[in-house]
Design a protein that fits this description.
Shape: elongated
Strand content: under 5%
Structural class: mainly alpha
Helix content: 55-70%
Largest sheet: none
Distance between the termini: 66 Å
């Protein structure tokens, strides 16, 4: 990897630059700008990877690979999207490639059919008294692309157009993933919603249901 430090104006405060401005400086060889960009993006990227991949070490490795690929690709990055959108696109491809190598990434339709067949019950490994614990568990049950779409929209705040760029699908497909994900999560998390009957969440975890 070849890089060179660009001389900084003494009055230039890198911290005041936007992510895209830092990426622009890094694209012409400013290693200090890229270092700051990495510090900004690493927590966001790692948080995303940990939702997409269950193994913590694998998530960290894929995050590092993503940052390395963005560094290598910056000179050819034409800024047709924001740096953050491009970074998530690289990250998404990394996770898809990872699951393809393992050959255990079912299609969205297959995964939703499996979940519907199981019925609306909370995840076995979650702390059923806490909504956030249940949410984290149920996100892991979503099809990979649907989970990515939900996270990018609800947590990272990307637009439908940006998500479509990340996932390389149409905005209509993004809407479909979001609608199915939201419907699934509302159903699965119903026992933890405000107004649920007392004891409903714990009762939902029972194996036998009604006698």
């Amino acid at each position: 990897m070849n890089s060179r430090d660009v001389d900084h104006d003494d009055n230039l405060d890198l911290e005041s630059l936007s992510d895209d401005e830092l990426a622009g400086a890094a694209a012409v060889g400013d290693a200090e700008a890229f270092d700051l960009l990495v510090r900004r993006m690493s927590p966001i990227l790692l948080r995303y990877m940990r939702r997409m991949v269950s193994e913590p070490q694998t998530a960290e490795d894929l995050a590092q690979e993503t940052l390395l690929d963005t560094w290598k690709g910056l000179p050819d990055f034409a800024f047709r999207s924001s740096f953050r959108t491009w970074m998530f696109a690289v990250a998404h491809r990394k996770t898809v490639d990872y699951y393809r190598r393992r050959r255990d990434l079912p299609t969205g339709a297959e995964r939703f059919e499996e979940l519907v067949a199981r019925g609306p019950q909370p995840a076995d490994t979650a702390e059923h008294s806490a909504l956030m614990d249940a949410l984290r568990a149920e996100l892991g049950n979503l099809p990979h692309t649907s989970r990515a779409a939900w996270w990018l929209k609800e947590v990272e705040g990307l637009t439908l157009v940006e998500i479509s760029e990340v996932l390389r699908v149409s905005t209509g497909s993004v809407r479909g993933h979001l609608q199915r994900s939201r419907k699934f999560l509302v159903t699965r998390l119903a026992p933890w919603q405000p107004g649920a009957r007392s004891g409903e969440a714990s009762a939902a975890t029972g194996k036998g249901g009604r006698s």
